[in-house]
Amino acid sequence: MKGLPDKLLNNMYKGIWAVDINNKFIYFNEGMEEITGLPRDKIIGADLNYFMELAHLSVGDEGHFRELALRVKDTLKPSRYHSLQFLTPEGKLSIQSGHIFPMVNEDGKYSGIICTVESFSEQKIREKTFKDMLSSKKKLEDIYKNSPVIAFLWTAEKDWPVEFVSDNISQFGYTPEDFTSGKLIYGDIIHPDDLDFVRNDVTQLEIEGRQFFSKEYRILTKSGEVRWVAERSLLVFDEENKPSYYQGIMIDITERKLAEEALLKSEKKYRFIFENSPLGIFNFDEDANITHCNDNIAKIMGVPKDKIIGMNMISDIDDEEMKEAVRAIFSRKSGHYEGKYRNPLSRKTTPIKADYSPNISDDGKLLGGVGIVEDITARVEAEEAMIKYAEDLAAANEELKSLDKMKDEFLSNVSHELKTPLTSIKGYTELISEESLGPLTDKQKEVETTVLRNAERLKRLVDSLLYISKVHSGTVKYIFEPTSIAEIIEMTLQDLKIQIEQKGLTVEKKIPDKLPLINGDKDKLTDTFTNIVDNAIKFTPEGGTLTFAVQEEERYLHIILKDTGIGIPPDLIPMLFRRFYQIDATRKRKYGGTGLGLYICREIVAAHDGKIWAESEGENKGTRIHIQLPK
Asked: What is the mean pLDDT of the chain?
């Protein structure tokens, strides 16, 4: 650099500096002293990393500059940089643009870089703001590195060569070097079917001189998988007001897009069913006013659709039984009507069956109801005719009993066939999870935990089906022996430890030492406690509490499982232990389940000459399950 006159360089560029092959500063002109506020004698001989630290470059800017410098070194070709932000010791924000040139020795090999500053702007930052920016830099760096949002810097050329991309591009299988090395440009990964309209939108943006670009489109991962992304970018213009480069972010929105597509399909399917159903279907709002109806309800009622819409299901109806069926909706219950209904508008009397269901939003708000009406004229006529054929009906009933028995046998066989491969799946999954076949990554362990949990859930479901089939066939066998209730509770909690920890539940135990034994079947009692604990986990919000208590009474051990979950309306508790019973459709959708668990618990406890019942003070006030077993 000694052969370059300072005056000439100062006239050519606003700032210039150079480092040798070891990234040590060998030149730092007066312009750089003015721009950065750093003295030349402090920089000459220092390492480039030291300069970066003094300049307080952001993570993105530092990474971008290093990528460009590496490219210049590898290709021996100059590269341009845009809008790098430096903080001077005096608290000034300096925004710089310029070029990076390679230096070569007599053999034509790389010997360092020269960096020029061709344009810059600066802004005085208040002392407090300056200190805040420095103190928060580490937090911002962590957020940047851990964010799912991918940062990009593209040049405004055809299909957007990439100047910088953050490391988390790895979520799509790529590395930053795939792009910054020039092997790929951004257009290479946009889905071929989306590339033209992305090009057109970007071209229109540049023509109109707008700065902000927002678009959702598909890209291809390195393995060829299609993913949806949302891009939000800023177009930066150069000094001649020409498009220079884009800086922006991109985030994976595949899950949302798939959910939207599924919802659209579901809505189309619902609309098709609604319009083409042989039944009459209508919706009414929270004030009982009909808002929608299909053509078939108009046909059944003998009234045009425009007369039905707006009709009030309470005040405009004369039939008191129909009114009662509708009123049930506003108590969040189902309503049913069957009889010869006389429409108040058409005066037409039609035998109908009508079922009403409450329409409840995801947040629990009652939106109104849905009515499904069937014209049962033909059925009523057939029923009247069938009175003369009682013997035939009896024969048909016997045939149905035979079919029911065949169903139970089929259910038993299928349950056995399901259980055999399930045992192998669970066993081998446990081997993998225990790392008997080799170590696992954290992500693999997470997946293995999910597989084990669901395999156990499927096992319990198969066991439930198998138990039901045995109950029907009268082949349930119990092995009664002295058994410790405390041990069964501990085993149950251990088996469900994963589910408990995933919801962050606290488990409290109030179990006295030296409890007397009971005469029981250990495996079936374990199934009982597993079912009630699984229910408690399912219906208890995250961070809740499960409490197991055991009390010794005169003839019984009294076990109580208390949760802090969603509770049960008191009037529904008597039906809780019925087979296939669910409290309502909304909870079934949200929490899942077959309705067999508590029914099986009741059967097992009864076989032990015990008692089981539930208590709850109402919704969102928790539930207590009581079990008494003879000592």
From this structure: 83
